[in-house]
Amino acid sequence: MQNQTVIRNHPAKKSGMSKKAKDHLVAYSFIAPNFIGFAVFTLVPMVFALILAFVKWDGANPMEYVGMNNFIRLWKDPTFHKALWNTMIYTVGVVPLTMVCALGLAILLNQKIFGRNFMRTVFFFPYVASLVAVAAVWNFIFSPTMGPVNNILHALTGVPIEELPRWAADKDWAMFTVVLFTVWKNMGYYMVIYLAGLQGVNPELYEAAELDGANAWQRFRNVTIPQLAPTTFFVLMILVINSFKVYDIFINLFAGADNQLNDSTRVLVYQIYNTAFRSLDYGYASAMAIVLFLIVLGITLVQFQGEKKYGQ
Amino acid sequence: MVGANKGIQIAAKAFAYVVLIIVVLCMLVPYLWMLSSSLKLNKDVFTFPMQWIPELPRWSNYQEIWTRIPLGTFIYNTAKLSIIVTVLQILTSSFAAYAFSKLNFTGKKTLFLGYIATIAIPWQAYMVPQFIMMRSMGLNNTHLAIILLQAFSAFGVFLMRQFYQSIPDELCEAARIDGLSEYGIWARIMLPLSKPALSTLTIFTFVSTWNDFLGPMIYLTKTELKTIQIGLRMFISQYSAEYGLIMAASVVSIIPVLVVFLALQKYFVQGVASSGIKG
């Protein structure tokens, strides 16, 4: 391939600067608006978070360096353990259910189906709909005595309403309710990612499998699943990370007028929020935040390894 | 044999339709219930069996909510924030992405890696120091705080750069030879070509700002500054038994997102698909 090099003969600009310096200046001017905002409002707080984790501070009195004390406190703090535990239970519930539903729907929608686009829109919409509004509807529908769900269950099974689960108001059923709600709300987003993955599968692979006499299940087992491995991996990571960051779903599904959560529904970010903005214990809250960061970092590193393995 | 296969195929299709229709119903019913309840008296919301279409639809619910809470103010605040954040996000992200994908400069790789690294850091992990910083700047209880913390994202730069990479460099070279400045290339060539990516970023940013809960909850404690999410939550806490009104306010809070979503959804679905996975 010759004639590829483009010869640029710009007349030398009449200025004291070299061409290279000028180019650099232009490039930096493109980056500056975003970078300055990003550096000041994101990078600086990130560094500040690291410092805060090692001090004791209520925002008014002078800061006091306490070394690893905040982390030692975390290690012994049953409230924090419970919050971490609740977050993990939630994650273990949400992740597999969402993946199965999203993949199943993506496979069904990947065929020639009448009303495909309409369905895709319907499945996706809860993901962008305002959480406060949909949480309110769920709370009404799952309302223990008045709600249609328990009334329908009562009509179908004959079990007295008093004996049916009290869903969000019931500490044994609260986690189940929030998992169900999360899957309902976010499934469509992951379905779209899976749909994209499915469109990327080479159709010749299916044809070859069919020629070899593979039935539908074998084709799914030996073509679809392996081909979707990178997508599945990506979805898994995003799901786990998002589950660990959860806060607003819990506040909107469980908190009363006081915006407080009880022992069975307190999650990690709620704990950070409360420690910082209600107890004004900024250092301790930052130590919790560092734990959240380390968890997410761990998951991200696993993802990097995985991507190497699947050779994206 | 062939006949049996045909039969299986038809059965499989039928099964697919049944499952899909059930899921569509599960997805839609809560919204229909919301809509139906928003037109009822409180005492009629929970009548069982359900009355999907109220006998006397109470449109007055939709008039009353504006007087019960400053819903107009909430919507105005949210729209203002969402639009400003989205415009800033699109401008600064596409501007920076142009340098990252089409220009050469010292430290380009390092800087970009730094950007990418921060995408993985959850905002919740540094929201506390960020708040302390904003407060010391006197930005607590200002809309500016929300704008500043949402308008400059590494994600936006990443998304736009992904798209710009697919635009051939020769196009820019040709424009340079024609004497167009770099800013001219960005404005006249890159921006018009990147409609799909811009639509995606617009929806992502608009929807996430419109629906943001934790940010406004931390920064905006004065009622006249609150956004629709926080306002609606406040209303639900205060008037927990006003079922009809709560549902009417919920419908109102969803409509703007629905409009933006339907208008741009074609690009959005493409964008979601391409932002995650590089095929």
From TrEMBL, chain A:
Q: Which domain of life is it from?
A: Bacteria
Membrane-crossing ranges are 25-55, 88-109, 121-141, 173-196, 228-247, 282-302
Keyword Ubl conjugation annotated: no
Where is this protein found?
A: Cell membrane
Tell me which GO cellular component terms the UniProt record holds. Answer: plasma membrane
Establish whether keyword Metal-binding is in the entry: no
Keyword field: Cell membrane, Membrane, Transmembrane, Transmembrane helix, Transport
Gene Ontology terms describing biological process: transmembrane transport
Chief location? membrane
Q: Where is the ABC transmembrane type-1 domain?
A: 84-303
Name the membrane topology term: Multi-pass membrane protein
Pfam families, per this entry? BPD_transp_1
Give the range the annotation lists for the signal sequence.
none
UniProt record similarity statement: Belongs to the binding-protein-dependent transport system permease family.
Under which name does UniProt file this protein? Answer: Sugar ABC transporter permease
UniProtKB/TrEMBL annotation, chain B:
Which spans are transmembrane here?
14-33, 81-100, 112-132, 144-164, 243-264
Q: Which GO terms describe its cellular component?
A: plasma membrane
Q: Which GO terms describe its biological process?
A: transmembrane transport
Q: Does the keyword Cell membrane apply?
A: yes
Question: Keyword set for this entry?
Answer: Cell membrane, Membrane, Transmembrane, Transmembrane helix, Transport
Q: Tell me the InterPro entries matching this sequence.
A: MetI-like, MetI-like_sf
* Record Pfam families: BPD_transp_1
Domain ABC transmembrane type-1: start-end pairs: 75-264
Q: How does this protein sit in the membrane? A: Multi-pass membrane protein
The family annotation for this protein states: Belongs to the binding-protein-dependent transport system permease family.
The entry's protein name is: Carbohydrate ABC transporter permease
State the organism of origin: Paenibacillus lentus
